[in-house]
Amino acid sequence: MSAAFDGWVLPPGVLPARVSFAQAHGVRHPLLDPESARSLMDSLRTAREDALLRSSAAERARVLGRAGARFLDRSDPLRREAEEHVPATADLSLEMSRAVIDGMARDWTGDRLLQLLATDLPHPAALDRFVPSAGTGRVRGVAPALCFHVGAGTVPGVSATSMLRSLLVGSATLLKPGLGDVVLPVLLARAIAEESPTMAAALAVLYWSGGSDDHAESAALAAADTVVAYGSDATMRSLLDRMPADTPLIAYHHRIGVALVGRDALVERELDGVADELAHAVGMFDQRGCVSPHAVFVEQGGEVGAGELAAALARALARFHAALPPTPPSPALASNVHQLRRTAELRRASGEAVEVYAAQASGWTVLLEPHDAIEPSGPGRTVRIHPIEDAAQLPTLLAPIAHHLQTVGVAGLGERLENVARMLGGVGATRICPLSEVAFPPPWWHHDGKGPLSVLLRWVDLEGD
Amino acid sequence: MREAGAGREEPPFDALAADLGALFSRGIDAPLDDTAFDHWARRVFRWQFHHNPTYRGYCVGRGATPDSIGSWEEIPPVPTAAFKRLRLFSVEESKQPEAIFETSGTTLTEKKGEHWVASLALYQSALLPPFRAHLLPDGARFPVVALLPPPDQAPRSSLSRMIAAVHDTLGAEGGGFFGAPDGSIRDEALLGALLATVEAKQPVLVATTAFGLVHWLDTLMRGSVRLVLPEGSRMMETGGFKGRARAVSRAELYDGVHDALGLPADRIVNEYGMTEMLSQFYEPTLSEPLGPDLSERFHVAPPWVRTRVLDPVTLDPVADDQPGLLCHHDLANAGSVAAVLTEDMGVRLERGFRLLGRAPGAEPRGCSLATEELLESATMMRAARK
Predict the structure, then answer these.
(1) Hey, are the CB atoms on B78 and A346 less than 8 Å from each other?
(2) What pLDDT is stored for residue A212 in this prediction?
(3) pLDDT class for A13, splitting at 50, 70, 90?
């Protein structure tokens, strides 16, 4: 058991000489009094001009990229520190932690951040100066002076990515990561400070246990120009209750993903490949991602049927399990798995068209069953396979969860892809992608339908010649 | 292995139920040793295996038949979740249920669980002796005041049905049901009834869910009402310590009862029951002296129920002081399935078990949507469309 991880990076001088600390889930963090909380907000705001606005967005991308790329180098001390602390704090195996860091840090390089600027903005320099707009006149994007991020949960890297986005657009940034996602943003902030102490003066990462009575949270909600939050509907409601009515909240709600396998992919020679891609999509982050699929819809009429795909997926999950094992299950997860599997066995015995494929312990479970309702299967690498007659039926089946839908991983649709994608988009999906890409969307994806940088910006039009 | 039901004329369910009823009527002090319990459990298993094709298929799939098992512990338990999806009814094809009990839905569940009850007489013979032993060990007869809907308004509530049986069989004149099916309580009528008992110096037996009690205590507190229930009064409270997040701890709740009703914690008995089981467990608060520490309390079973504590991952029995999932074997469930695997954690003790509540670690994590959230928003959407 390694020592507690220090869950903060603050600009110099913010932390008072006498401060008490708390510890939760292997993360140590200081408890700010109201005065030091306010002084943190002031210090971030004041530093912004020198730290961020004297350089262009492209220059910021290169600095941030040099810091981010260190996490792709397994010999780098910060990467090694990440591997030491991510497993315990995020409750992921070492192998899974490595895969997640690799997948996340891939998008933290200078090249990827420059590409993000070019893709999400009407002009890569639109943050630096007025650029010609698509209409007449010119336009410039203005970032919020202070951006406060509230991270969630235990998908490591999500908070760090969010923090990079606001630094890139030029906002002083305060991140409160989720308890299970403290390590990567803290280490990335340290890497940024090593790369550019000037830039780091406008960045703070600080964990605290959230809620209304926390001084840091009250101060941050009062001071922020924009709040970016990840979490449940209840989290969003609570934040909205406590922030000024005119401060924008960019809310990334919890989401659910599904997959669709069309008959073109349901051929014997592609079966194991499709199954491996599905296993990767389901198993990555131990199925805790907003992108993680919980149900796979399988078209009938292919060379192989849904049952064969289910069996192949079970074998693929066993291979995935061997390569990237989960952590030991909590009693609740283990209990859920027994309830689910044994109920499925009883349903099968009662004559329902249900099959159960499962690891000996709680490792993974595949259920083949007729579509009834979409149910999140819980973070247990549990996936339901539903046969459907035709891909065109899927949008109607997904309508009940339209507001929560995000990623639909697809395969084997051939020329029907665009039409199916159009219908899926119509019911609420915001991302339709190949199965192999489900786990790690590119940095410029429209995250829940919004441009990751442009959503932060206020646009200023300069009309006339 | 013989085919189900072939070759031998079996006595009907009613004969099994009558034999079990006679067994239960011996009371909770009549011991049922390992051999005797095993005998009864096998007889019930054989019946269920032969008369419930779904359960039979499940057991065969798990390699367990009446002739293959070495002891009752090898009888495959059904998960409580199965009652939400399936009709687990083990009777002759012609037989209809005498009642259908439905899970209360204290949490937002998509489907309610159903327990089809083959014999209300058997149910009653299982519920009365433990209730009498744990709530009325002094042999007293009191008016029963229930913060529950009356059974004619909540015919699918096993709790209402149970307290009605207690009211009719073990209670004295007076009392009644002061709840409504929507969970609300007729505050004024309830207060009136209790004030009358205070006036008459007539001790009462209050039966309530913890959830209903919390709300009623709030009402009393808002009106600054305080009673002192007559000496000898007692309370059975149930539920609410699992599943749903609670605003108050058990100690706070019992303190509130003491403040508002003058009933100290040593007059409050927690009942642990579930729709999926026709027998109940009680804390022996009244029947034997217990210390003031609520965390030291434990539940005991009647002799016809045995509880195993199982490792949550492997479902192997755990060592005596280790927490695990509670798996009950209830002979009163003869008409459905006797072996039930719950989602509740507990620790085995010499005389019973200590309930620890729902298995920990179920909170939603990551940015993936949790079931409760999906259901909550679906419920809100439906409500908005109405």
Answers:
(1) yes
(2) 62
(3) confident
Q: Are both A5-254+448-462 and A256-437 of the same fold? A: no
Q: What residues does each domain of chain A span?
A: 5-254+448-462, 256-437
Q: State whether A256 and B369 contact (CB < 8 Å).
A: yes
CATH 3.40.605.10 is held by the domain A5-254+448-462: yes
> Per-residue pLDDT tens for A151-179?
987 789 999 999 999 999 999 999 999 88
Contact between B54 and A346 using a beta-carbon 8 Å cutoff: yes
At residue B106, the pLDDT reads 47
Question: How much is the average pLDDT of B70-87?
Answer: 96
Interface list for A 280-319 with B (CB within 8 A): 285, 287-290, 292, 294
For chain B, strand residue ranges (E) read 78-79, 99-102, 114-117, 144-146, 175-177, 205-209, 234-238, 268-272, 281-282, 305-310, 323-330, 339-349, 352-358
| Dist. CA B223–CA B190, nearest whole Å | 14
ipTM over 0.95: no
Nearest to B341 among A338, A373, A376 (CB): A338
A292–B86 C-beta distance less than 8 A: no
Smallest Cβ–Cβ distance between A288 and the set B53, B56, B368 belongs to: B368
Residue A10: other Cβ atoms inside 10 A? 20
Confidence (pLDDT) at B379: 52
- The pair of structure tokens assigned to A167 is 């630094």
Facing B315 at nearest CB: one of A152, A288, A338: A338
pLDDT tens by residue, B118-129: 999 999 999 999
Is the predicted pLDDT of residue B9 greater than 80, yes or no? no
**Residues in CB range of A80: below 8 A, 6 or more apart:** A74
Kindly determine whether residue A254 and residue B358, on different chains, have CB atoms separated by under 8 Å: no
Decide if A7 contacts A179 (C-beta within 8 A).
no
Name the CATH superfamily for A256-437: Aldehyde Dehydrogenase; Chain A, domain 2 (3.40.309.10)
Q: What is the pTM of this model?
A: 0.89
